[in-house]
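dude i think i finally got it to work??
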Amino acid sequence: MPRPRSHTTAQLAAAALIVIDRDGLPGLSMRAVATELGISPMALYRYVRDREELEALVVELVLSAVDTAPPPPGPWPGRITVLARRLRETMCAHPAVLPLTLTHRHRSHSGLRWSETVLGVLTEAGIEAEERVLALRALIAYVIGASQLEHLGPLSGPGTTAIADLPGDQFPYMSATARDARSVTPDREFDGGLELLLRGLA
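look at this
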């Protein structure tokens, strides 16, 4: 007879998220999560098959905080902007989890619910069939990609400073653009890029 479980999958996900927030994604391991829970690493396998399943639980935990309710009526670009901002805000609360969202978003009920709401807004705007497929993929790629850039390669970071100091005769556009980037806030960067994307979809 298998031993009874003393923890829930929600507790496992919460413990794994604590590990990731503290030690980064490289620090996530079955042993680290087991230590956080005060159990043996082998006991963890009574709850999940492997690390991949544990990662999926973490993604669902993070994305479960996203407000997926349809935004108030209005022009569709504004409604999509509201949904994109909600997803960004939720994911950026745990930036180390961002790389996992691309891999496990299909297994997250909350992530699927967000996409369903986005698709509803797009459909109401007359965006359907193949165009709707491309629009959803582009929006997901933008929100996740922009959120990763915000935390892994921010405009105010040392990379931008180094580019701004490149010789102007060899990299006139890169160096000038990097200097301009210093005054761009994370919110302006996200909203500005999203506006360009939505303008193209329109």
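The chain has a mean pLDDT of 93.
im so relieved honestly
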